[in-house]
Amino acid sequence: MKRRHTGLHAWLVQRVSAVYMSLFIVFFLVHFAVDPPRHYPAWHAWITSPATGIATTAFFAALLAHAWVGLRDVLMDYVHSITIRVVLLATIGFGLTAMGVWVVRILWTRHG
Amino acid sequence: MPHSPKPRPVFFNLAEIQLPVGALTSITHRITGVLLALGVPFCIYLLDMSLQDPSGFSQVMVLLDYLPVKGALIVLTWALAHHMLAGVRHLLSDIDIGSQLPASRRSAWLANIGGLVVALLAAGALL
């Protein structure tokens, strides 16, 4: 159990991920404003280039961690039955992990 | 400050309680967070389809042209804009910027209205 981590650790995860995601979103929007990829080759080349691929993977890692902390906080405030809370947390944890695997497959495995 | 004790128990008229603007920003920050989390799998699905092959990419373009999808996109844009503005407000108050009540109320209004303005801009661009 990492009980000693919940608290300051979660607070820090939420802030670091928020700052990184904000920077990535600005980067993403600027790219779409300056040079929008209108065709498959341009889009594919851009997002699977090593730099963008790593930045996008890090974005989703930050997003999933941020969603975990946020949803966990919401559940702890509103769901008081421990059984239902644990079931929901497990479902969310499984779902977020699956989404992480899915993104890595999309960005790295399938396209090499 | 002298004050006479009020008769107890006090029965609040819930319809008369006004939510302070900061509370509205706070609960909206939560609601938009949950909305955005629900939107993530659909965004990953679109990312997946768009990167499969050129026909998948075109399929995503066609999907993004459907009115219900555009509507969902506008709602998600509002959620993202509000969530980010309210989040920046949080980060600033962490380092003691705008944590006094008047500034905090101003920034709460800014987040609530800014989110709507961005949603209107998105609606203007998409519709």
Topology (elements, then pairings):
The complex is a heterodimer of chains A (112) and B (127).
Chain A lengths: L7 H27 L5 H9 L1 H29 L3 H28 L3
Chain B lengths: L20 H32 L1 H10 L3 H28 L6 H26 L1
Helix pairs in contact in B: 1-2, 1-3, 1-4, 3-4
Task: Describe the protein in words.
The complex is a heterodimer of chains A (112) and B (127). In chain A, 83% of the residues lie in helices and 0% in strands. Chain A has 112 residues and is an all-alpha fold. Chain B is elongated, with a radius of gyration of 21 Å. Chain B starts with 20 loop residues before the first helix and ends with a helix. With 127 residues, chain B is an all-alpha fold. Chain B has a domain at 65-127.
Give a brief description.
The complex is a heterodimer of chains A (112) and B (127). With 112 residues, chain A is an all-alpha fold.
CATH superfamily annotation of chain A: Fumarate reductase/succinate dehydrogenase, transmembrane subunit
Proportion of strand residues of chain B: under 5%
Radius of gyration of chain A: 17 Å
What sequence of helices (H) and strands (E) makes up the elements of chain B?
HHHH
Write the CATH fold name of chain A.
3 helical TM bundles of succinate and fumarate reductases
List the defining traits of the structure above:
heterodimer, A: 112 residues, mainly alpha, 3 helical TM bundles of succinate and fumarate reductases, 83% helix, elongated, B: 127 residues, 76% helix, 0% strand
